[in-house]
Amino acid sequence: MIVSGRAVVVSGDNIDTDVLYPGEHLNVTDVQEMRRYLFDGLDPSLRDLLVGDTILIVGANFGAGSSREHVPQAMKASGVRALVGESFARIFYRNCINLGLPAFLNAEAAAAAKPGSEIEIDTDGAIAVDGSRYELPPLPPFMQDLLDRGGLENWVRARGSGSG
Question: Is the pTM of the predicted complex or chain greater than 0.85?
């Protein structure tokens, strides 16, 4: 699978889900409405940069804190196609994958990306940042299948119907 887009950089390490999507909006269940609150506690102007072909570039331990699924849901609904980071909090990373939002670990690629950089991710083993190539471990077939189907819920449905 190839995922490409323009880099939006979220600067800083240890950015937690509480600032990415503040608790007072956790009652919102419509993912389109969730977009209005993404980054509210961090920098609401970041929302204006999400234009439908975004690859979010993040630092270390991104998504720490509570296990809010609202964050990857709002990101995906806002046009974030994937994340590239130095490291992710474990639960946040699994929430992304389970919700069909690819998240890739590569500190060198994340450090090389600047706002507006052209990013191309080949899930078979590479990330290109403005034409410079960085190695990426290929996704395990299970995760690739899960992402291809748009997340865990769709993957389970397909397996239950006998088509997966």
Answer: yes
